[in-house]
Amino acid sequence: MRTRVFVLAAAAGAAMAVTAPAAANAEPTGGHVAVKASDPVQAQASKKFNGKCKTPKGKKITVSFSPGNLSTTFKFTNRCKQKRAIQVWKQTNGGEKKKGKCFVVNKETKGKKKVWDSMATPYKVTFPKKIPKHCEKPPTS
Predict the structure, then answer these.
(1) What does the pLDDT read at residue 17?
(2) What residue segments make up the domains of the chain, in order of their start?
(3) Contact indicator for 88, 101 with CB cutoff of 8 Å
(4) Half-sphere exposure of 131 (CA within 13 A, CB side)
(5) Cα 82–129–103 angle (5° rounding)?
(6) Where is the secretion signal located (predicted)?
């Protein structure tokens, strides 16, 4: 019986810890406090980009990411029958936009790649037609 009282007291304390601006955006969901997307403290939304394949026609390569504080994990699905390069574009804290990391993914595969950069935030991804020399090659297996 004491355990249940303690758990309820801890849940009540956690609900009271919500700040006033966040509480204005909060919605009760069965004992939990959910914050609406309009709250500025919430993390940035994930972004998704598509590129066309040479072969087979109609297939795509897709990349999605959600920027973090120190790193960003890029999740990719390559449905093409050839290797593809993924060029990341970043924006520095000062607002300057420039090329970032470039990496190559194997044909007909999916996976993820973590990119570390605390001084800039990725904002878009492009798919170069030819694989640039500066791109990081995929691991050979």
Answers:
(1) 43
(2) 2-35, 47-126
(3) yes
(4) 12
(5) 70
(6) 1-26
Amino acid at 67: P
Single pTM value for the model: 0.65
- The 8-class DSSP code of residue 136 comes to B
- Answer whether 61's CB lies under 8 Å from 50's CB: yes
Residue 72, beta-bridge partner list = 115
Residues facing residue 62 across a β-bridge? 50, 77
Joined together, the tokens standing for residue 64 give 């999605």
Contacts for 47 with CB less than 8 Å, ≥ 6 apart? 64, 65, 66, 123, 124, 125
Contact 61, 93 (CB under 8 A): no
Peptide bond into 122 cis (omega under 30): no
pLDDT digits (tens, 9 = 90+) for 24-42: 444 444 444 443 444 333 4
Pairwise pLDDT comparison (45 vs 85), residue with the higher score: 85
Give 83-129 as a DSSP string: -EEEEEEEEETTS-EEEEEEEEE-TTEEEEEEEE-SSEEEEEEE--S
